[in-house]
């Protein structure tokens, strides 16, 4: 595999070594292979690790198949991949509710399988949404970008906004929840607010409300499993249709949607901001609230 890219105009001049290790956060193994195999070129010439690169320089990287772990995913239906954004390295897909991000076995079809079929090539999961949650999911199209974008995600530099319809309403229009989250000792499928749990921060904004329900937007500073579901439930405002944290709700689906994802592209430096539409969430003031609730 060969990748070529032009460094963005706003990038600072730096050594090749600094570019790979710090600007791109490339793993040590990949950097070592590029160096040992002499598979890195600047403007068509074999690169020295200490030479300086800057705006508009062309960087070319060559990887052999054995440089990466082999991934086999059974292709699904390409028509089920609702593509929101795509470039040479990344693809963002609008996941429907009721579909897993990736299967637990080779035979189980999930969103990853459908994206693989659309690309006719492997798709690598960067993050996941719960099966019941719809909205934007980011995949890597190759194993060169996968650890780079993965580290950005771990550092909480990929920002996501979620929309939820919850039971009741908050007394404040805006609030931030600082509540640690840990696994429920009595139900391994659930998570709970726990002082011994991992740090979790959720920002909540009320967009609209009625006598029974509210539309809220949640943004995350952390990415704990079930974070929004647990935090909202802990405040007495569980998400409508949540089978775990609001099991007596009669709504047929969980009313949680990952409506927007934004980040700085690690290679191009471009600001990426992608909205994920939803037919379920429709309202006169917000495109993400169902009328009649």
UniProtKB/TrEMBL annotation:
<dbReference type="InterPro" id="IPR050188">
    <property type="entry name" value="RluA_PseudoU_synthase"/>
</dbReference>
<dbReference type="GO" id="GO:0016853">
    <property type="term" value="F:isomerase activity"/>
</dbReference>
<feature type="domain" description="Pseudouridine synthase RsuA/RluA-like">
    <location>
        <begin position="89"/>
        <end position="234"/>
    </location>
</feature>
<comment type="function">
    <text>Responsible for synthesis of pseudouridine from uracil.</text>
</comment>
<dbReference type="InterPro" id="IPR020103">
    <property type="entry name" value="PsdUridine_synth_cat_dom_sf"/>
</dbReference>
<keyword id="KW-0413">Isomerase</keyword>
<comment type="similarity">
    <text>Belongs to the pseudouridine synthase RluA family.</text>
</comment>
<dbReference type="Pfam" id="PF00849">
    <property type="entry name" value="PseudoU_synth_2"/>
</dbReference>
<dbReference type="InterPro" id="IPR006224">
    <property type="entry name" value="PsdUridine_synth_RluA-like_CS"/>
</dbReference>
<dbReference type="InterPro" id="IPR006225">
    <property type="entry name" value="PsdUridine_synth_RluC/D"/>
</dbReference>
<protein>
    <recommendedName>
        <fullName>Pseudouridine synthase</fullName>
        <ecNumber>5.4.99.-</ecNumber>
    </recommendedName>
</protein>
<dbReference type="InterPro" id="IPR006145">
    <property type="entry name" value="PsdUridine_synth_RsuA/RluA"/>
</dbReference>
């Amino acid at each position: 595999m060969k990748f070529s890219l032009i460094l963005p105009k706003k990038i600072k001049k730096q050594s090749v070594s600094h570019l790979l290790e710090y600007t791109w956060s490339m793993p040590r193994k990949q950097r070592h292979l590029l160096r040992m195999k002499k598979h890195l070129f600047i403007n068509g010439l074999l690169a020295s690790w200490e030479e300086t690169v800057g705006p508009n320089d062309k960087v070319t990287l060559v990887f052999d198949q054995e440089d990466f772990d082999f991934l086999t995913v059974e292709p699904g239906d390409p028509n089920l991949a609702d593509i929101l954004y795509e470039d040479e390295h990344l693809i963002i897909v609008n996941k429907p509710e009721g579909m897993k991000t990736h299967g637990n076995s080779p035979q189980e079809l999930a969103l990853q399988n459908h994206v693989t079929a659309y690309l006719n090539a492997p798709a690598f999961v960067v993050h996941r949404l719960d099966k019941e949650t719809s909205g934007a999911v980011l995949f890597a199209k190759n194993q060169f970008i996968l650890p780079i974008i993965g580290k950005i995600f771990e550092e909480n530099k990929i920002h996501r906004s979620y929309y939820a319809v919850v039971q009741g309403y908050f007394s404040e229009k805006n609030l931030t929840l600082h509540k640690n989250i840990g696994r429920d000792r009595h139900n391994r499928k659930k998570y709970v607010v726990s002082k011994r749990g991992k740090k979790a921060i959720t920002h909540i904004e009320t967009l609209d409300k009625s006598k029974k329900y509210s539309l809220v937007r949640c943004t995350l500073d952390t990415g704990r499993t079930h974070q929004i579901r647990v935090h909202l439930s802990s405040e007495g405002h569980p998400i409508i249709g949540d089978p775990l944290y609001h099991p007596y709700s009669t709504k047929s689906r969980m009313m949680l949607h990952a409506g927007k994802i934004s980040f700085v592209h690690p290679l191009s430096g471009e600001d990426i901001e992608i909205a994920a539409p939803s037919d379920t969430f429709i309202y006169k003031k917000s495109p993400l609230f169902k009328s009649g609730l």
